[in-house]
């Protein structure tokens, strides 16, 4: 498998792709990273300067959809409130993207600190909060006096329930505001997804008359305001059953219009204040209910998550209206009539919607709203308002993400297999007839790479390209093309007809592969931490690795040390000849120093790996700052290393032992003609590259 790793990985990718379920797909780190990148791109427009974290979970029985605390975005990708249960993967991705766009909107436009600050006022300072309530008429004056009396008599737990109500209202208006901002400022796929999700959720929500039939006027009123703030309209349903209930929200709607269209959290706060004041008689029973009666407190996070809408809780945000929709697995209970079903009392003449564009009553077309029962078997039902080009883009994105997920699984599988093979090969090595005590470890990719580290990689790659210039003629020859100025050939070279030496011909050249393989073996003993040797070694490794990759020379970078006295020699693999995941540059950033060194054992392992390469020219660079220390005696160390050098010569491997410390005389004695004095550490990269160039030119 080791020699045919790429072919094997391609086979595994195909197998793993077929095994990826929706739950796997919608909880995978690849999708989290994909969404985080979208958020980073969106927030960079406002110089947000940080990458939000995205956490996905798949919980169909959980009514919550999503939320954010301004640092992390949580999304329940398996929620039945998100889309149809049997929706295609593309449909569900688009729905997730809509919820995700909503949460990104909060991170961009919600003043979290302002909300939290004013929350304390509502909870602790009755007089200040009451003075902020906008009084617009006699009803409001009367309600203000009742609220003043109520606040003077009630205990803290009732005040906390008032605070909870206020918070829910602010969330509702904030949801409406941020979604309008996202749709207007991100008119591409992200804004389209938010708008599409709004349409789907509105079409799957119950009307206000349904809520009243259940006997929950407080929830019905919150639902009406939520609909208007988020969807721009209110589905009143059977107006004959409202009995003038709709009058409660008409005077509130101008405040809602201002709150959802104007920057500044003060507008949402003012709208919430006026809603509570104007509708005090509706909300007061909810506030007075004892906590033991089952009322559920809202969450502190802003967004579409939170508790389900039921008899005892109020909606906390825009997406929560979907928790009681017909698109769910279970049908509504018998005590909750559904006007969308046959035989309902919602005749066309009684069906009305309050539209945000006019804040007036308008007739709803008989066909509108009749799509409440969506065909869950339809693969494209969630795309009904999506542009064809966006559908193609969504399909492309989903397929790409599936491929990435399958690749990562296949890479992990390949790494496990290669790890097993490495250990088997290590066990076959012998030292003086005895098994070598060695452990081989493939260094994992760094979870996060700093900006400074990214810049260092980029700079090293630039230096490597600059070092390529003298090799340009040779590289052009290896890449194929025409060899001009020849004495013989099948075609005349028009540019060289003037020549008098008869070199007037050109012939085609076939591309050739590199005939050189390189291994760099780094001493990682504790002494490498002094005089910045570790940092300069890392710098060297990045440059030489980048250089070899540019010219197509296979390169392996290993480190070695002994952590525990008389313990095994640990060989750490930073770069492999045939890297699978192309993340070796990030691995090189993990070079560290600790413990002692046993050079002979490490040389045998590095040589055995290099000997397997098909190239005829093989170079092993050993970088060490001193004599080996993990031996019982210096004589034993010398004998062991020289024996390892003999093995390398038999394998036709050229050894270059670069001494980068103060122990140069001792290392010269040990390695003889292979010794290489590197006094100036800043030039070590140039020296290694020069040696590689020399071999190539040969």
What's the helix and strand layout?
Layout: H1 5-19, H2 22-25, H3 29-44, E1 53-57, E2 66-68, E3 72-76, H4 89-109, H5 112-124, H6 126-131, H7 138-153, H8 156-185, H9 189-203, H10 208-213, H11 217-231, E4 233-238, H12 247-250, H13 253-261, H14 265-278, H15 280-288, E5 351-355, E6 360-363, H16 388-428, E7 430-431, E8 434-435, E9 438-442, H17 451-467, H18 472-478, E10 481-486, E11 491-492, E12 505-509, E13 516-523, H19 533-551, E14 555-561, E15 569-575, H20 584-588, H21 599-611, E16 617-624, H22 634-650, E17 654-659, H23 664-671, E18 675-677, H24 684-697
Parallel strand pairs: 1-3, 9-15, 13-14, 13-16, 16-17, 17-18
Antiparallel strand pairs: 2-3, 4-5, 5-6, 7-8, 10-12, 11-12, 14-15
Helix pairs in contact: 1-16, 3-4, 4-8, 4-9, 5-8, 8-9, 8-11, 8-13, 8-14, 8-15, 11-13, 13-14, 17-19, 19-24, 21-22
């Amino acid at each position: 498998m080791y020699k045919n790793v790429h072919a094997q990985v391609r086979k595994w990718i195909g197998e793993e792709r077929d095994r990826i379920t929706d739950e796997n797909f919608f909880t995978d780190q690849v999708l989290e990273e994909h969404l985080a990148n979208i958020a980073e791109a969106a927030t960079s427009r406002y110089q947000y300067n940080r990458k939000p974290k995205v956490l996905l979970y798949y919980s169909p029985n959980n009514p919550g959809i999503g939320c954010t605390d301004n640092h992390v975005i949580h999304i329940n990708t398996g929620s039945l409130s998100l889309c149809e249960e049997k929706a295609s993967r593309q449909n569900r991705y688009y729905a997730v993207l809509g919820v995700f766009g909503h949460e990104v909107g909060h991170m961009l436009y919600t003043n979290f600190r302002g909300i939290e600050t004013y929350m304390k006022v509502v909870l602790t300072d009755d007089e200040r909060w009451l003075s902020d309530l906008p009084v617009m008429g006699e009803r409001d004056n009367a309600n203000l006096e009742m609220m003043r009396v109520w606040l003077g008599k009630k205990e803290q737990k009732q005040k906390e329930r008032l605070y909870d109500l206020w918070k829910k209202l602010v969330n509702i208006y904030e949801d409406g505001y941020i979604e309008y901002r996202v749709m207007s400022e991100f008119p591409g796929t992200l804004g389209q997804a938010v708008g599409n999700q709004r349409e789907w959720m509105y079409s799957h929500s119950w009307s206000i008359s349904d809520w009243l039939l259940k006997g929950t006027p407080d929830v019905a009123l919150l639902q009406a305001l939520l609909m208007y703030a988020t969807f721009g309209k209110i589905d009143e349903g059977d107006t004959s059953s409202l009995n003038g209930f709709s009058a409660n929200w008409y005077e509130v709607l101008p405040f809602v219009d201002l709150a959802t269209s104007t920057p500044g959290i003060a507008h949402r706060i003012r709208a919430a204040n006026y809603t509570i004041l104007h509708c005090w008689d509706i909300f007061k029973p909810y506030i007075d209910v004892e906590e033991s009666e089952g009322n559920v407190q809202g969450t502190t996070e802003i967004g579409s998550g939170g508790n389900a809408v039921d008899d005892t809780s109020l909606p906390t945000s825009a997406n929560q209206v979907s928790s009681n929709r017909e698109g769910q697995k279970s049908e509504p209970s018998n005590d909750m009539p559904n006007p969308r079903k046959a035989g309902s009392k919602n005749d066309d003449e009684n069906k009305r919607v309050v539209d945000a564009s006019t804040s007036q009553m308008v007739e709803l077309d008989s066909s509108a709203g009749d799509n409440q029962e969506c065909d869950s078997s339809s693969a494209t039902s969630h795309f009904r308002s999506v542009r064809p080009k966006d559908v193609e883009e969504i399909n492309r994105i989903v397929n790409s993400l599936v491929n990435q997920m399958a690749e990562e699984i296949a890479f992990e599988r390949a790494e496990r297999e290669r790890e097993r093979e490495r250990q088997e090969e290590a066990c076959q090595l012998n030292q003086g007839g005895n098994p070598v005590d060695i452990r081989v470890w493939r260094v994992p990719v760094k979870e996060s790479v700093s900006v400074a580290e990214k810049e260092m990689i980029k700079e090293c790659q630039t230096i490597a390209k600059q070092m390529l210039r003298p090799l340009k003629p040779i590289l052009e020859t290896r890449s194929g093309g025409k060899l001009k100025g020849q004495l013989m050939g099948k075609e005349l070279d028009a540019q060289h007809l003037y020549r008098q030496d008869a070199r007037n011909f050109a012939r085609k050249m076939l591309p050739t592969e590199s005939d050189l393989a390189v291994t760099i073996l780094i001493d990682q003993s504790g002494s490498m931490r002094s005089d910045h040797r570790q940092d300069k070694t890392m710098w060297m490794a990045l440059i030489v690795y980048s250089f070899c990759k540019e010219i197509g020379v296979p390169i392996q970078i290993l480190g070695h040390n002994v952590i525990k006295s008389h313990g095994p020699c640990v060989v750490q693999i930073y770069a492999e000849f045939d890297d699978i995941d192309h993340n070796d540059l990030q691995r090189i950033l993990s070079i560290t120093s600790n413990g002692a060194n046993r050079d002979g054992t490490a040389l045998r392992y590095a040589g055995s790996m290099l000997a397997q390469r098909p190239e005829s020219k093989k170079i092993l660079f050993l970088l060490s700052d001193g004599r080996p220390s993990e031996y019982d005696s210096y004589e034993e160390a010398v004998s062991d290393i020289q024996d390892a050098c003999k093995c390398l010569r038999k394998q036709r491997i050229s050894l270059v032992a670069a001494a980068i410390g103060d122990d140069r005389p001792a290392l010269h004695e040990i390695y003889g003609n292979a010794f290489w004095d590197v006094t100036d550490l800043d030039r070590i990269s140039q020296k290694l590259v020069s040696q590689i160039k020399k071999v190539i030119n040969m």
